Every structure is written in C-alpha cells, then in structure tokens.
Amino acid sequence: MHLVIAALRWRSNRSKAALLLGSALFAASASVAWADALEVLQGVWVRERTDCTRVFEKIQGKVRFKDRTYASEDGFIITGNKGKGPVGGTCTISQVNEENDRFSALLTCADAVVSRKFSWSFRIIDATHFERFDAMVGAIKYKKCAF
In the record, which residues are listed under signal peptide (predicted)? Predict the structure, then answer.
C-alpha cells in the first residue's frame, strides 16, 4: 500500500513539475517572440513607397525628422520600447503578443496635450519590411530606412 501511495505522490509531483516547466517555457517563448518582434522594429520607418530622405535627415550621426509642419508622409522611429512620431508625441510599447503570423502591441502614447492607449496589429515580412493592419484602411506596408 505504501508503494502505491508513494508512486501516486511521485506521479503527482512529476505532473506538477511538468506543468510548471511547460508554463515557464511558454512564458519564455512569448517573451522571446516579443523581444524578437521589438528587435526587428528597431530603427527608422516610412511607408513602402516613400523616399526616406523626404521624411528624415541625418545630422551629426543622428537620424531625425525633417521639418514636418505640413508634411504628408508617414514615418516613425523606434528605439528600445519607445516610438516617436513626427509631431513630438512619444509611444511606449508595454506588451507584444504573438497571434499566428501577426503581433499585437499595446501602446501608450502621449504628447503635451493628450494621452491614450491602443493596440497596434502588425506582421513582420522580413528584417526591413512589415505591414500594419488598420480596420479603416487595411494593410499598410512599411520599409526600414538605411542611414
């Protein structure tokens, strides 16, 4: 009888260990996916058919937006978990989830007047291209600028 109880305890402890290990591996793979997606997005981006030099310039080794007061071209810069748009607002990427071949990022964006949170859905095509999904417009393709 003691052998049966010992075997059941061992089996139960083994199942718990397997469950914990599986959870840890899942969490690690999710954070790797987040890190990988965020790593690919590092840099300077414009819409696919936009000339990078119309939106950005490199001065003293740093890439920055050109005077964009009335510019119509879209572009942004991602450094670490921060995103910067042309009019001075900054977004913080706090969470990235993988959903099949797409990612969903939670962003908190603020400028001097307003702050808001929203989700941003995208698919990485390769190291220099991705597409963002917008409910109103559909897929918008972006390319990484090489400076």
Answer: 1-35
Give pLDDT tens digits along the chain (147 positions): 444 344 334 444 444 333 333 333 333 333 345 458 889 999 999 999 999 999 999 999 999 998 766 556 689 999 999 999 887 789 999 989 998 889 999 999 998 888 999 898 999 999 999 999 988 889 999 999 998
Please give the tally of structural domains in the chain: 1
Q: What is the pTM of this model?
A: 0.71
**Domain with 105 in it:** 2-144
